[in-house]
Design goal:
25% strand; globular
Length: 280
């Protein structure tokens, strides 16, 4: 009995250590091909490889910055990690489980832990809903909570993103772009996720407002224990926020490494071009 109990405890400790050191997100050979159609809408049998055999990991608590020019496949890659877009090939692992193999019901449970912040703060919020309805919608879907508890959660989320509780009764059109993005961030935080894809989350904002949002994301990462994939075409923003940086071009990751190494000693010619463009 004692030996069995020691073995059980030992196995439990090994599992805990394994989970702590295991990457939170892992992409294995992810590929996305979009079929090309002719003028009559018929498949031509060829297609665009938006993402081409990409593999990488994102460690717990870090920010992986994904940088590259528009159209290189960054957003497609980010959405495949969340299974908002189905990959043509490859696998995605989240917290050790292959989510590309999950059925709809199992994926629903996993989605609580994975969220996205969209690029457009004007188009990503339903104009017919109040802010309270927007930020509590995920809770209403995934949890059985009464209105008082939903409102309490909503008020806490407003405080977390730097908005007044009075904002809950208003509609998206009554806010500026930066405020709307804060509302979108509050919605993403509602279920207390572990992983957030920030897809060009500041590119539609003025420079000063974008800086405020980036600093907010940094604070929230510490307060909520978040892991980020931060997608951007701006190397300075990525350099400021990221632990590591992956450089993407033509559907492939051409270089990945620590933020300091990538920005001070880039190895790939395209990375060097991105950094020279910042200096000019």
């Amino acid at each position: 009995m004692l030996v069995a109990e020691i073995a059980r405890v030992g196995h439990s400790l090994v599992r805990r250590v394994t989970l702590l050191i295991m990457a939170l997100v892992e992409a294995q050979h992810l590929t996305k091909v979009y079929d090309a159609n002719d003028a009559f809408g018929r498949s031509t049998g060829s297609g665009l490889r938006a993402v081409d055999d990409v593999s990488f990991t994102i460690e717990r608590g870090e920010t992986l910055g994904l940088v590259g020019e528009s159209g290189c496949g960054k957003s497609t890659l980010g959405r495949m990690l969340l299974r908002l877009i189905e990959p043509s090939a490859g696998k995605v692992y989240f917290d050790g489980a292959e989510i590309t193999a999950l059925n709809a019901r199992a994926l629903r449970d996993t989605r609580r832990k994975m969220q996205i912040i969209f690029q457009d703060p004007f188009g990503s919020l339903d104009p017919r809903l109040t802010v309270e309805e927007i930020v509590t919608e995920p809770l209403a879907i995934h949890e059985e909570l009464g209105k008082p508890m939903l409102r309490q959660h909503a008020a806490e989320l407003m405080g977390a993103v730097g908005l007044e509780v009075s904002a809950l009764a208003r509609y998206p059109h009554e806010f500026s772009g930066g405020q709307r993005q804060r509302i979108g961030i509050a919605r993403a935080l509602a279920l207390r996720p572990h992983f957030i894809v920030a897809d060009e989350a500041v590119s539609a904002l003025d420079v000063s407002v974008a800086a405020q949002i980036v600093n907010l994301l940094k604070k929230l990462q510490k307060d909520f224990g978040l892991t980020y994939l931060f997608i951007s075409h701006s190397m300075p923003v990525v350099r400021y926020l990221s632990t590591r940086i992956a450089v993407m071009r033509g559907g492939k990751i051409v270089e990945i490494g620590d933020a300091e190494q990538i920005t001070s000693n880039p190895q790939h010619e395209y990375t060097q071009e991105l950094l020279r463009a910042v200096e000019e």
